[in-house]
């Protein structure tokens, strides 16, 4: 029977943690009862450097349910994508299949059964895909959907309306662990793995408790990673714009010449100042974009470890986990 690990990244989730633990333990119990997963299945909470009581609550849950609730404490806040990776790398050694889900339970836990069914049908990755975005605020809905479309336009292969609610088989996680990138956008990496995949549809709900841990700044950073980590199209667009402007400037030069010979010479201050501003802006834009990539190269070549596991709460011997972490260090 397959052992399921549910990975839950948590950043300041003290309000939602107990509810999440209870609900997800219920889901495990249900699936175990139906004989769909092994009774050794477990939850793995990853504390992403929370400044509230999140970790204490995880420890409490582990004390109450030592085999059901496990925890990983990261030494500092590394962000959702790395916290999730830390969870996957830890769980990989202990389970046959993983499902990642947010601590706020916005994703519908009832479709986890469907995910497991698809896994048993032989799918390696099953994406949770949102049907509608009724519960999202207008701004979030518009920006997120615009972003997914823009991403597609830029040639990034990502699943439309899929966040990080996803089932992954052990071998999919193993393969994912080989993507040692510092600018990590898991949703973009997953489709590159190339195994058999499927989707399950669900309605996204309101947060069960607490507030969003994704302020605009973190969202923009993720969006930028989601494009510039996978696509070089922005550079070719700049190149295209450069070519067009050069062609236009030739036309402008011809116009200037004609004006000169017909004696129709104006002081020309307006056109001059306009072109200075416009070209200056274009150059800055181009340099900025190129710099964006150079910045990424710079970060990648440093090969820093991407996270630091401070403590692991499990039932298995520490050796297994340590070996796993050694192998998967960034
Ligand atoms: N999260 C995290 N580290 C961070 C920010 C968020 O581990 O730095 C977790 C958070 O605890 C939650 C998930 O990532 O489990 C998604 O965050 P949230 O629900 O706040 O995002 P939203 O649904 O508002 O986009
Ligand atoms: Mg959320």
Write the layout of secondary structure elements.
Elements lengths: L3 E7 L3 H20 L8 E6 L6 H11 L4 E6 L5 H13 L4 E4 L11 H9 L4 E6 L7 H16 L8 E8 H7 L9 H8 L3 E6 L13 H13 L4 H29 L7 H34 L6 E5 L4 H10 L3
Parallel strand pairs: 1-2, 1-4, 2-3, 5-7
Antiparallel strand pairs: 3-8, 4-6, 5-6
Helix pairs in contact: 1-2, 9-10
The structure holds uridine-5'-diphosphate and magnesium ion.
Hetero groups in this structure are: uridine-5'-diphosphate, magnesium ion
What's the CATH topology name of the largest domain? Answer: Spore Coat Polysaccharide Biosynthesis Protein SpsA, Chain A
**Strand runs, count:** 8
Low-confidence stretches: none
Query: Element order, helices and strands?
Result: EHEHEHEHEHEHHEHHHEH
CATH homologous superfamily annotation of the largest domain? Spore Coat Polysaccharide Biosynthesis Protein SpsA, Chain A
CATH top level of the largest domain?
Answer: Alpha Beta
The total tally of domains equals 2
Q: In angstroms, what separates the terminal alpha carbons?
A: 32 Å
CATH architecture of the largest domain: Alpha-Beta Complex
Q: Count the DSSP helices.
A: 11
The Cα radius of gyration reads 25 Å
Relative strand content: 5-15%
């Amino acid at each position: 029977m397959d052992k399921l690990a549910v990975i839950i990244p948590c950043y300041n989730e003290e309000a939602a943690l107990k509810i999440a633990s209870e609900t997800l333990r219920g889901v495990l119990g249900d699936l175990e009862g139906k004989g769909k997963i092994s009774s050794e299945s477990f939850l793995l909470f990853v504390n992403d450097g929370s400044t509230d009581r999140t970790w204490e609550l995880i420890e409490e849950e582990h004390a109450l349910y030592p085999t059901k609730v496990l925890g990983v404490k990261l030494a500092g806040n590394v962000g959702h994508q790395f916290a999730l990776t830390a969870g996957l790398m830890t769980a990989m050694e202990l389970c046959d299949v993983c499902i990642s889900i947010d601590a706020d339970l916005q994703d519908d836990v009832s479709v986890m059964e469907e995910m497991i069914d698809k896994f048993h049908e032989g799918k390696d990755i099953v994406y949770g895909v949102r049907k509608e975005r009724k519960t999202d605020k207008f701004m979030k809905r518009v920006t997120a959907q615009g972003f997914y479309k823009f991403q597609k336009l830029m040639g990034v292969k990502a699943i439309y309306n899929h966040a990080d609610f996803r089932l992954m088989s052990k071998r999919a996680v193993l393969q994912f662990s080989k993507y040692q990138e510092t600018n990590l956008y898991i949703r973009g990496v997953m489709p590159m793995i190339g195994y058999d995949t499927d989707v399950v549809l669900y309605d996204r709900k309101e947060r069960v408790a607490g507030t969003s841990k994704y302020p605009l700044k973190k969202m923009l950073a993720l969006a930028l990673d989601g494009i510039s980590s996978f696509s070089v199209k922005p550079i070719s667009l700049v190149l295209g714009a450069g070519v067009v402007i050069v062609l236009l400037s030739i036309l402008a030069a011809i116009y200037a010449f004609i004006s000169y010979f017909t004696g129709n010479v104006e002081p020309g201050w307006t056109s001059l100042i306009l072109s200075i501003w416009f070209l200056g802006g274009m150059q800055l834009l181009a340099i900025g974009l190129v710099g964006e990539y150079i910045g990424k190269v710079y970060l990648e070549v440093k090969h820093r470890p991407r996270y630091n596991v401070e403590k692991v709460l499990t039932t298995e011997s520490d050796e297994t986990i340590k070996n796993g972490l050694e192998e998967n260090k960034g």
